[in-house]
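To illustrate the input format used throughout this study, we show a single complete record. The first block contains the structure-token representation of the backbone; no residue identities are included at this stage. The design step must infer an amino acid for every position from geometry alone.
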């Protein structure tokens, strides 16, 4: 692998945290006392740093001389625990770990909000590479290695969907059959509530989705946010997945809906400028599968090609785009009404219009 990582063994490509953001500091002494109840052999006080982002749960690194951990907690002022349920996220990963080894090892869950002002949980840190919008500087993958990385990530999704959720004790994670129908109804309702004057009504798209909703093809554990920036790669072999992160939205549902969600983020090198503006993972690199190849590969590896064809997958692809449009519109709604001043959200309404056009193009294609 010396040809892959230029210079030192990791050459600075391993994902690291930075300074804690103002107003988001942790009570280090309180955390340390709790940690040493879970792991009595820990030495000294932890060095506390924070990972970038924070739009969802806040994520910190607790670095001891003899231990390295990740702490997750909700943002300050969170009211809806259902959106930032630390206990649920902790229990999902605890149940999956024995049957899906790429989940981090859980350390403990603290539901006493008095300790740091919120519930939190701690897990062991997986040191590795997290592929974000672009691969880290110093990491050099040729097309063949990029393809192997791509298929390895998809294989981990297939493995997740084959987990025996009953054996893992995760029967209560979802509502059972009818997942596809509930998703179409739920996201349609959310769009109506978040609509502003400068975005389309999505009436044709929503009517098509409602009229073409299939029965669930299966029920399994789904991640619901499967992207390259939610996996951890081995620093010595950057094509090998050693961890899967961010289980906040995991549930029991239809596996093809999970893949449809992922494809909405799958931006290819030849996509237009508006689509390129949405890219947040390195799916544009030479060697990455194209969307139609992703569908064919997944269906073949999962065995679902016996139940559904790549041509039939258009429903799930349109659903994924519509869901992403709703997410973007919900964020823009907050900006439009002055609930956030983040300038990055100013033009999200343009993306919502674009996704409507793209959904309609796929609908037209499906009728041929």
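Output of the design step:
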């Amino acid at each position: 692998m010396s040809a892959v990582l230029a210079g030192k063994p990791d050459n600075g490509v391993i994902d690291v945290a930075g300074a804690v953001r103002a107003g988001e500091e942790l009570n280090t002494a309180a955390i340390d006392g709790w940690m040493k109840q879970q792991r009595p052999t820990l030495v000294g006080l932890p060095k506390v740093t924070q990972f970038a982002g924070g739009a969802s749960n806040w994520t910190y690194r607790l670095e001891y001389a003899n231990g390295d951990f990740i702490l997750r907690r909700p943002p300050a002022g969170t009211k809806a625990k259902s959106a930032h349920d630390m206990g649920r996220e902790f229990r999902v990963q605890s149940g999956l770990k024995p049957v899906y080894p790429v989940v981090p090892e859980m350390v403990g869950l603290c539901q006493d909000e008095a300790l740091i002002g919120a519930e939190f949980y701690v897990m062991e840190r997986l040191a590795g590479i997290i592929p974000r919008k672009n691969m880290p500087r110093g990491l050099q993958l040729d097309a063949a290695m990029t393809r192997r990385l791509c298929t390895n990530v998809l294989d981990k999704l297939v493995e997740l969907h084959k987990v025996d959720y009953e054996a893992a004790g995760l029967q209560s994670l979802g509502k059972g059959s009818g997942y596809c129908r509930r998703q179409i109804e739920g996201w349609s309702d959310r769009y109506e509530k978040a609509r502003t004057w400068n975005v389309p009504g999505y009436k044709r798209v929503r009517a098509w989705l409602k009229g073409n909703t299939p029965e669930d093809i299966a029920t399994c554990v789904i991640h619901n946010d499967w992207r390259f920036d939610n996996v951890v790669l081995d620093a010595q072999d950057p094509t090998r997945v050693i961890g899967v992160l961010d289980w906040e939205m995991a549930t029991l549902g239809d596996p093809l809906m999970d893949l449809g969600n992922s494809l909405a983020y799958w931006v290819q090198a030849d996509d237009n400028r508006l689509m390129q503006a949405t890219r947040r993972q390195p799916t544009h690199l030479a060697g990455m599968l194209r969307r139609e190849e992703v569908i064919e590969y997944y269906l073949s590896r999962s065995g679902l090609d016996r139940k559904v064809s790549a041509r039939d997958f258009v429903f799930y692809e349109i659903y994924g785009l519509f869901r992403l449009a709703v997410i973007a519109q919900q964020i823009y709604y907050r900006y439009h009404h002055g609930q956030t001043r983040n300038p990055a959200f100013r033009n999200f309404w343009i993306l919502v219009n674009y996704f409507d056009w793209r959904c309609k193009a796929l609908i037209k294609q499906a009728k041929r």
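Structural context for interpreting the output: The CA atoms of residues 194 and 329 lie 6 Å apart. The first helix runs from residue 28 to 38.
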